[in-house]
Model the fold of this input.
Amino acid sequence: MFGPVTIPFGVRMLFNTVKLKPGVTIDDVELALAEMCNVVKETYGDGQGGFVAGQVMRFAGFVSDEGSIDGGAPAQGVADHDLAIVTYWRSFEQHERSHADAVFREKFAQLATHCEHTTELGYELLWQGQPEAKAGADAKPAATRAATESA
Done:
C-alpha cells in the first residue's frame, strides 16, 4: 500500500482534484476513498483494465515561491481543492471504461456525497527521471561527505 510505484513511459496520468464540503475532514472520507482506490486497483489493475498505479495526496498548505513564476502570491497557501487523486493508465479510453463501470461508479458516488466538486484532468507523460546511482564516495550526499571528511 505504501510501496514505491513504477511509471512506464507512455502512460496517461489523470489528475483529479477533490474539494470537500465545508466541515468534512479527511477522516470523514478516508474509508470511502480507500474502498474506491481498492476497487480501481483490484478490478482494473491488469492488461485489460489498464490501471498502472495511483497515489492520493492531501494539500499540505505550502506554496513554493521558488517554483512559482509569480512567487506563489495568488495561492497564498490556499488551494481550490483538499485532495489530489493521481492515477496512471495505459490509455485514456481504459480509464473512461473503468469509470463508466457500475462497480467504480458506486464507490465514487460514496465519495462524492462528501465533495463540493471534483475535476479530473488528463496528461501525457513527456519526461521522467531519477538520480543515477554513483559509485563509491561520490554516492554520498554533500552534507554526509563533509561530515565524514572533517571527522
